[in-house]
Amino acid sequence: MKKGIIILLAAALGLGACNKFEKGEGDMTYKIYKSEGKPKIQDGDYVKLNGVQTVETNTNPDSVMVNTYDNERPAFFAISKSMFKGDLASGLKLLGEGDSAVFKLNLDSMEKYSGQPKPKGLKSNIASFTIKIEKVLHKGKDPDSIFEAKKRLFFESEYKALNEKNKIVEPAKIAKYVAENDLKVTTAPSGLQYVIFAPGNSERATLTDTVLMDYTGQFTNKKSNGKLNVFDTSDAKIAREAGIFSESVQYVPRSLPLGQLPQGVIQGIQLIGVGGKIKMILPSKLGFGENGGGPINPFTPLVFDVELKGIIKPGAGLPLAK
What we know:
Enzyme class: isomerase
Domain PPIase FKBP-type: 208-312
CATH class of the largest domain: Alpha Beta
InterPro entries: PPIase_dom_sf, PPIase_FKBP_dom
CATH architecture of the largest domain: Roll
Catalytic activity: [protein]-peptidylproline (omega=180) = [protein]-peptidylproline (omega=0)
Helix content: 10-25%
EC number: 5.2.1.8
């Protein structure tokens, strides 16, 4: 993420940029952009927040590690006692509901106390957290058992509201993606929208087959840095560009049992033969539905670009990728 994007994000949150960084606990420094003057967060409280975590690498001054806005999924954070002076919990206790700030934390301390290794290729040992506190459930003097029940009801209420919003805006997300990408889609009776770029040969996969394919799965919204919002891909170049590349992943065509894929992907792949290329836009009912899964929220439409490399019949060996 470029610095200009950070500024735009701050502006979108109603943040000002005139404050200077102040010294906090330990190695932490911070800048409060907006303060509503509400009671500060305390140990034991439960908060709903949105945020962006960035680090400075040798190739990117603002490499994004976490962005709840891109994921369209706010974080729910139980405030515990600080693990070390200058950790994120100590920073959040400077804020109240509706407040926004950025915190710069020491990655060496974070690694030491959390056990999570630092990202590779760092240029500095500082992580920046740009935070917006959406809501705060204060524990006050409630016994733990009562507050746990309140937390559960709070989370369920917020999660239900998020799902209802996702359900309402889903058709608009699909329409916007189609329009912005100037796609001439065909719509199947199931609701699947697709564009076939290459039909491939005459062979078609059946539910008992395994398919060998290159693919990219993405959300309909772009990331805040303007890049594709990819959640999975077999293409190393796309993974790097999307910021999800992992050294532990083999970026090669994947062999997957067709019958175990999302219903919309099954339908789309059966429209092409080996050598075929297709873009599929799945409404959530053909993807991960009202429950979601992993990084995918409930009622989330998805886009899959697939090139079918091979069809493997039951009991047959793996064909060479074309």
